[in-house]
Amino acid sequence: MRFLSTITARLSPAALLPLLLLVVSSCSRYNNNGSLSIAGIIYLVLAIYAVVSLLKQDWSLTKKLVWGAIIWFFPIGGSIIYLLFSGRSS
Structurally, how many domains does the chain consist of? Predict the structure, then answer.
């Protein structure tokens, strides 16, 4: 229960928007004609923001590689996990 309260305390309503859009768009980042859907655009912005934030950190290369792997292998969830739990300086 404490874990859930920690997540809710750190999670802004804007962070829930990509998850909501992902569910609404039937878990697809692309429309039938191959163009990006709204969820795809939001994912792209979220991923770019996470990677730029990661590159600006003054961490060791190993820590950056670990967070980069999390963002890469878990596309939407990894970006959200990084933004919530990385302990980055604001």
Answer: 1
Identify any residues that bridge with 36 across adjacent strands, giving them in sequence order: 30
Which DSSP helix (H) or strand (E) runs through 85?
Answer: helix 75-85
Is 43 inside any structural domain?
A: yes
pTM of the model: 0.58
Residues spanned by the domain of 26: 2-85
Whether 90 is covered by a domain: the verdict is no
**pLDDT, one tens digit for every residue, the chain (90 residues):** 565 456 555 655 556 556 555 555 444 555 666 666 777 778 888 888 888 888 888 889 999 999 999 988 887 888 888 988 887 655
